[in-house]
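FAQ

Q: What does a record look like?
A: Structure on top, sequence underneath. For example:
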């Protein structure tokens, strides 16, 4: 008798032997310890055991594995470092988790064409450091860049602090090598900056959350490294004034490299965690960076300082050294880690609105938190409207979690009402399944399903993500 899980085939002994023959016993893991280690990502309250974990060494092994899995409808979940925040890499339908720790090489840094070609397991920060050593710059900088991988960044179209000025991952992916669910290998794009030969399949796969195929190689765009950088802290007694100042900076045609927002609760926790001198007696802080030629940076920072003062900032201070500036940026990147120490469960979301609606959205988040009597700290990439309302709660308290669900439901609906979206960089995954149609409509969901069906007719690629019918929100799923 064939035993299935969620309509998909569980790995039999015969299939297990075939897979081990492909990748070797050292790269095939199905012990309880191994399965438990890859049963979750950074998303709270989602956990499910896979049937096996495979760590391929090359594209050919991935092709062979996918052919077998496609034949037997075994789920495949491509996984980077597990920093996903929408349960996108949680194997909720079982199957095989593909891990790319052996495919972690920078294959080429092409200084003539300003590109870098990498395997999916390359750590983001290592890539950034490698190209900066050549005087080049890869701008996408998710807060998890010390451990996140390029493959994961591509699957989620990750953003980061520098997204306001430089854009996000999709803006730097020029070409991909992809293994399709049937085992075929496809290449998209390349090093040419112009390429309109047919559909833009490169952009289609960036942000597809592993639902269409497996990225095995990526060619990324580089730019010259900025000559200089300055960092500023602007302190505000009034939270609305800080949010309005964000809009004022942009409306004055100034695009900082970063324009980050932290409310008072976040500042208190981050300072206690990082101890870098963040103020804790104001209601909001703007962390602003500008980079480029020295004369441009100087001019822009003077103008930004004046805009902050006109916006009733209590004080405006420019970091006096590179060490001080880096400490402030590092503290901002540590916000999630710092907040996670306070309660058993930390739910970090990313409701995103147009820049001009930042003030209204921040106000709405505070009102919603008060309405449901839940603790929500807000920080994020305010310059591009990407706010991170972060709820500190306890997943074991069902009554409280119900209130949290209601609060986030209202937050997402408010973001869409203001012309925004349910996610700016975390993806839909499984956590935000109920909200996708709010953003793209039923027609949009149907079109996406048709694309999924065309590439993955047997539904093996990261099943249960984006548009599963039996969506569950923030519940523990036992393997």
């Amino acid at each position: 008798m064939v035993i299935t899980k969620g309509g998909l085939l569980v790995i039999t002994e015969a299939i297990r032997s075939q897979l081990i023959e492909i990748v070797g016993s050292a790269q095939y893991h199905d012990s309880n310890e191994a399965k438990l280690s890859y049963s979750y990502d950074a998303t709270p309250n989602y956990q499910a055991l896979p049937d096996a974990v495979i760590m391929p060494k090359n594209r050919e092994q991935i092709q062979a594995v996918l052919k077998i899995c496609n034949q037997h409808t075994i789920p495949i979940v491509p996984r980077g470092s597990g920093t996903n925040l929408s349960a996108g890499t949680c194997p909720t339908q079982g199957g095989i988790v593909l891990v790319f720790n052996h495919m972690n090489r920078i294959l080429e840094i092409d200084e003539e064409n300003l590109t870098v070609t990498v395997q999916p397991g390359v750590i983001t920060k290592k890539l950034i450091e490698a190209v900066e050593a050549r005087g080049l710059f890869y701008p996408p900088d998710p807060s998890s860049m010390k451990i996140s991988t390029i493959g994961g960044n591509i699957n989620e179209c990750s953003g980061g602090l520098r997204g306001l000025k430089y854009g996000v991952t999709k803006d730097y992916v020029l070409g991909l090598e992809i293994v399709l669910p049937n085992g075929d290998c496809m290449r998209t794009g390349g090093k040419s900056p112009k390429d309109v030969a047919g559909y833009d399949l490169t952009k289609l796969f960036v942000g597809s959350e592993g639902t269409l195929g497996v990225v095995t190689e990526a060619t990324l765009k580089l730019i010259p490294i900025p000559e200089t950088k300055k960092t500023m802290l602007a302190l505000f007694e009034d939270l609305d004034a800080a949010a309005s100042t964000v809009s004022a900076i942009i409306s004055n045609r100034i695009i900082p490299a970063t324009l980050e927002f932290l409310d008072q609760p976040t500042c208190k926790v981050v300072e206690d965690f990082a101890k870098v001198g963040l103020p804790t007696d104001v209601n909001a802080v703007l962390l602003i960076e500008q980079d480029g030629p020295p004369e441009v940076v100087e001019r822009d920072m003077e103008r930004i300082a004046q805009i902050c003062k006109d916006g009733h900032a209590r004080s405006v201070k420019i970091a006096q050294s590179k060490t001080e500036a880096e400490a402030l940026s590092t503290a901002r990147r540590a916000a999630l880690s710092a907040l996670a120490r306070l309660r058993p469960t930390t739910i970090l979301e990313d409701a995103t609105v147009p820049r001009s609606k930042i003030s209204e959205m921040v106000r709405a988040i505070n009102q919603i938190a008060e309405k449901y009597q839940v603790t929500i700290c807000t920080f994020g990439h305010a310059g591009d409207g990407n706010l991170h309302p972060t709820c500190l709660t306890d997943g074991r308290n069902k009554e409280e979690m119900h209130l949290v669900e209601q609060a986030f439901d209202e937050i997402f609906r408010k973001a869409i009402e203001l012309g925004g979206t349910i996610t700016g960089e975390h993806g839909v995954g499984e956590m935000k399944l109920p909200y996708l149609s709010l953003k793209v409509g039923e027609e949009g969901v149907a079109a996406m399903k048709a694309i999924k069906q065309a590439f993955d007719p047997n539904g093996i690629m990261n099943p249960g993500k984006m548009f599963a019918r039996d969506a569950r929100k923030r519940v523990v799923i036992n393997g």
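Q: Is there anything notable about this one?
A: The chain is about 35% helix and 20% strand.
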